Structure prediction request, 166 residues.
Amino acid sequence: MKINVDDELADLAALAPSADPAFLRGACWALARLSGLPADVLERRVLAGAAPAVAPLAPMPAVPAVPAPPFVSVTETPVGPAEVVGNLGFYPGVGPIVKLPDPPTPADMTSPPAPPRPGSMADMAAAAVESGEPAALPMDPETLAEVEAELAAIQAANGAARGSGQ
Prediction:
């Protein structure tokens, strides 16, 4: 797909006097993603080609004045209110970061792992091994040697074909 950046910027500059500044910023960002040019450069070119009555776009605030409540999925039970720890930044399209991640839980290596849940990938892999599915069985050394010999023969044949000019 080929894009004429100058034509797109001219269209945006024509829209600039009546367009929402957030729309112009988003359009410049999208055009930057497609063209590989920096979005702020494209934004300056749009504003330079627009009518002088257009004020420069205000920078996006780091954190909105009123943070949105944390998203809770209907399928999950809420763990509790998010502990607000201050201004950790703003994730574009999601909102403010209000909670630090929980520390990793160390694994208990003194007891065997829990059995796989029914229907999980681990359960399906165990069932495949028990049923004798060849793709799931571990490879014995003899079979591994046969596969490696077959690959070596194919590579040797490909090398001979390249050397003969084919």
In short: Confidence is low (pLDDT under 50) at residues 72-80. The radius of gyration is 29 Å. Helices lie at 5-15, 21-35, 39-49, 121-131, 141-163.
